[in-house]
Amino acid sequence: MWEKEEKKNHPIWVGREFSKCSGCRKCEIACSLRHENKLWPEASRVRVFMLVPGTEFPHLCTQCEDYPCVKACRFKALGVNEATSAVTVNAEKCTGCGKCIDACPGKVPHVHPQTNKILICDLCGGDPQCAKVCQEGGWNCLRVVEREDHEFKLFARVPEETAKALATKLYGEKAEEFL
Questions:
Q1: Which CATH number among 3.60.20.10, 2.40.50.100, 3.30.70.20, 3.30.450.40 corresponds to the domain 4-177?
Q2: What is the pLDDT of residues 78-108, one digit of tens each?
Q3: What are the two backbone dihedrals, phi and then psi, of residue 63, each rounded to the nearest 5 degrees?
Q4: Rounded to 10 degrees, what is the CA torsion of 114, 56, 106, 140?
Q5: The pTM is what?
Q6: Listed residue (40, 103, 52, 113) closest to 77, CA to CA
Q7: Which of 40, 117, 146, 159 is disulfide-compatible with 49, CB 3.0–4.6 A?
Q8: Exposed, middle or buried, 13 (CB in 10 Å: 0-12/13-18/19+)?
């Protein structure tokens, strides 16, 4: 693992291996503690879905290489942190209009339950807490990786698509019974 100072100088990404998710929701808890200073999964930047029994998985920003959410924001409330590659939200400029949600291929951004401003993963300034607790717990579903030249947008799926793919991986042909 990089030293804390180095993390902030390298673009990173949260790698995901959904079939390893235990459904513990510690990623939601760590995120809400980091950003809200309390346990508040509804205000977490990562949300865990279970649309098919036994297929819980985290849903978070994939930091698409073309950032359609940023381009869609007519109020210029969204930007990109060049050091980490994370989408950032300027809450003072955000109106909560939802254009970024519509533009996101995974429909990841969501509205804060209290402020009505958009929530998107900001990679915790280069030290993603969701990946940290997942690694500490030994599940290894989420992990910090150095951002390289990949098509990150391929991971930007709506929860229903991810659930279908995961159910098919876990249950094979039987998955159709659950979908």
A1: 3.30.70.20
A2: 999 989 999 999 999 999 999 999 999 999 9
A3: 55, 55
A4: 100
A5: 0.88
A6: 103
A7: 159
A8: buried
